[in-house]
Amino acid sequence: MLSNVIANQEIHTEYGGVVPELASRAHQQNIVPVVQQALQRANIGKNELSAIAFTKGPGLMGSLLIGTSFSKSLSQALQIPLIAVNHMQAHILAHFIEEKEHKKPSFPFLCLTISGGHTEIVKISDYFEMEILGNTIDDAVGEAYDKSAKILGLAYPGGPLIDRYAQKGNPLAYTFTKPKVGKLDFSFSGLKTAILYFIQREVKQNPNFVKENLYDICASIQHTIVSILMEKIENAVKETGINQVAIAGGVSANSEIRKRLKQAENDKNWQTYIPKFEYTTDNAAMIGIVGYYKYLEKAFDANTTTATARLKVDE
Asked: Which one is the CATH code of 10-92+280-296: 3.40.50.720, 3.40.50.10540, 3.30.470.10, 3.30.420.40?
């Protein structure tokens, strides 16, 4: 990897969540400067590129269309292959980016993909042979973090703040009921509701409840969420007999899930794979590594390829 440039969109903070229209406008403004910066950092010219890999989905349609249109134009202008990439496959295959002292999983392995839009347990048998074993039936874990943070009056994105404050609190201070769903599936809508009702009830008795107990509340929320994730991946290991376990996606930056996974490596004799922080949130390197393996297979796409807002990891 020669360069990996990211443009953050801070505009969404004041709205407490991602605004699709603002996101697509920011993509339009940033895409040319970001590509130019990436080429400069890599110290190469665009005529030295072998192919263009881009995200076709899943994601916000407006943002995807801008990336798709730009990539098609660039591949046509340079007369080089176009490679469409599944965003969720990219999170998983980020584990194969060449890095010093970074161990890579061997096939087959399990991956817990956790982000603002997805919560899945995926069995990976080869680079492009993936099977979803468990999925969320409603909300994703990242959304559960952010909505819980919003209930507590924390800024967006709230997940990292809950993680930070949780490290100073008692994870057993408060108990939240864990949703009962299928053995490998997830559900977080009921948990969000339970947290909301709990806070409303306590604040009614003590208006300063959140401020006085913020660290313990965050620790208890995080303990509940991570316990749900760990229970499900433990079920998947038992069901498949595969003890190689990886995590991927934005929420894989969470300190507690990383700690619990490392504990499982020692306690349960798992082989665990945790990505570097820069490869957890959305980034270009993970799209590039998928493009690399597709390029080796000459799995090129026509310029008729379209963006897809909803796309499963095994598609």
From this structure: 3.30.420.40
